[in-house]
Design brief:
Helix 4 packs across helix 6. The protein folds into three domains: 110 residues, Trigger factor ribosome-binding domain (Alpha-Beta Plaits), CATH 3.30.70; 96 residues, Chitinase A, domain 3 (Roll), CATH 3.10.50; 200 residues, Trigger factor, domain 2. Helices cover 46% and strands 17% of the residues. The radius of gyration is 33 Å and the shape is flat. The chain has 13 helices and nine strands. By secondary structure, the chain is α+β, with helices and mostly antiparallel strands. Strands 5, 6, 7, 8 and 9 form a five-stranded antiparallel sheet that branches.
């Protein structure tokens, strides 16, 4: 068998395979025997019908087609083993010549793990940027705490204002007829947050509890419900309750109510310390992200479509989970936005390409840096998955070889980035320390992308070998 392998676009290899005529003829004879055994032909026992009779029953090309299908599978498998190729997916096969008495010729285009050519990933000119913690930022936190601990006081001596908490009842009609979804007996809202259609809440301003008001308004032209989009309607509203938010005074008593703080100054000092720690942590993570961007920008890689497609599916599952947390079904979301699943995938694709590129580049950097993850570390993460998830399918994924490879690759990528950050800090002792506690390192199984990978049984790009060992 003659095999020629040529690099092709999108990290694929074109195999041109020629199977000798004598082997093809033998495959045709074997195909005729198989078809004869499994085809019932009147007047013949199974396996005894001659080829001309079979072809009269099954079609003139049935025997050759059967032979080609079987021989292509066998010879393709022999070719990739002989060439040391690990395919990412099934090959695209094109039959070039399949004539009896001649050699069988076909082409097979197979996607493989891409070659990653990394450039410089260490000699960057930027450094960590630590956000300054000052009095205004501390005061902002104090105001947020006051808001979180505010009380609501009934309003009786004035009309409604933006920012007030209200409970309203309303009835909407179009041409005098109530429309679906346009009625509520009690709806709580904060006036001015525009939860309802634009301009609706402005009509509550100035109303007093127990009052009623009728007004005309139009739905936005882009409103999802087509029967109402851009249409004028009329609403009648009743203001049932009105309350205003009353913030506590920023004083020592307020500080004492929040914990073990004797004075407001001690609370502010604690906030300043926390903001400082957060600023250091954020600086470290943002610095790590810039290092990743630098490494990827200096690398060359031709992404195979199959890996990008897989990352699109991972992102799609993450999106489903995000909708579910908001109490929204995907079908309802697609209907409300007028999008299709294909539209979502097109939106996900650019980010999926970048994410795939990052995974592959960091895997290569980890190889160059010699980062090793022990079996004990992997098993620790598998144990964490068992404790974290109840879904048997998710646990089974992380217990499988594919899931363990996902964990190992994820840990390697995380560790190599942390090592690059620490190496830069060691080379710049004048820079403030950016502490990294190993105990606080993120789990490989805790991220949303990990759960999404388990949901689709994903293969981590960094775990795919580039050749048969």
């Amino acid at each position: 068998m003659n095999v020629t392998a040529t690099p092709a676009p999108k990290s694929s290899i074109l195999l041109e395979i020629e199977v000798p005529s004598e082997r093809f003829d033998r495959a045709i004879r074997e195909a005729a025997g198989r078809l004869s055994r499994r085809t019932r032909v009147a007047g013949f026992r199974p396996g005894k019908a001659p080829r001309p009779i079979l072809e009269r029953v099954l079609g003139p090309t049935a025997v050759v087609d059967e032979a080609v299908e079987q021989l292509v599978q066998v010879s393709y498998r022999e070719a990739i083993i002989g060439q040391g190729i690990v395919p990412l997916t099934n090959a695209d096969v094109e039959i070039v010549e399949a004539e009896e008495g001649k050699a069988l010729k076909f082409k097979a285009t197979v996607q493989v793990r891409p070659e990653v050519v990394i450039g410089d990933y260490k000699n960057f000119t930027f450094g960590p940027e630590i956000e300054t913690v000052d009095a205004p930022k501390v005061d902002k936190v104090i105001e947020e705490l006051r808001d979180q601990n505010a009380s609501l006081k009934a309003v009786e001596d004035r009309g409604a204002l933006n920012g007030d908490w209200a409970v309203i009842g309303f009835k909407g009609t179009k041409d005098g007829i109530p429309f679906e979804g346009g009625t509520s007996d009690r709806m709580p809202l904060i006036i001015g947050e525009d939860r309802l259609i634009p301009g609706f809440e402005a009509n509550i301003v100035g109303m007093r509890p127990g009052g009623s008001r009728t007004f005309d308004i139009s739905f936005p032209a882009e409103y999802p419900e087509q029967s109402l989009a851009g249409q004028p309607v009329q609403f009648e509203i009743d203001l049932k309750e009105l309350r205003e938010k009353v913030l506590p005074e920023a004083d020592d008593a307020f500080a004492q109510s929040l914990g073990d703080y004797e004075t407001l100054d001690l609370l502010k000092a604690d906030i300043e310390e926390r903001l400082g720690r957060n600023a250091l942590d954020r600086a470290r993570h943002e610095f790590a992200d810039r290092i990743i961007e630098y490494a990827v920008a200096n690398s060359t890689i031709d992404l195979p479509e199959v890996l990008v497609d897989q990352e699109v599916e991972v992102m799609h599952d993450e999106f489903r989970s995000s909708l579910a947390r908001q109490g929204i079904g995907e079908e309802a979301y697609l209907k409300a936005t007028g999008k299709t699943e294909r539209d979502l995938h097109e939106e996900f694709r650019p980010k999926a390409e970048q994410r795939t590129r990052i995974l592959l580049v960091l895997t290569k950097v980890a190889e160059v840096e010699g980062v090793v993850i022990t079996d004990a570390e992997v098993e620790g993460e598998v144990g964490a998955a068992r404790a974290r998830y109840q879904d048997p399918k998710t646990i089974q994924y992380f217990e499988s070889e594919r899931g363990r490879n996902f964990i190992r690759s994820t840990l390697r990528r995380t560790r190599v980035v942390e090592q690059l950050v620490d190496a830069w800090l060691a080379a710049h002792p004048e820079h403030p320390a950016l502490p990294h506690l190993e105990d606080d390192a993120p789990s490989a199984v805790a991220a949303e992308s990990a759960q999404a990978a388990a949901a689709i049984d994903a293969t981590d790009p960094g775990a795919i070998p580039d050749s048969i060992e």
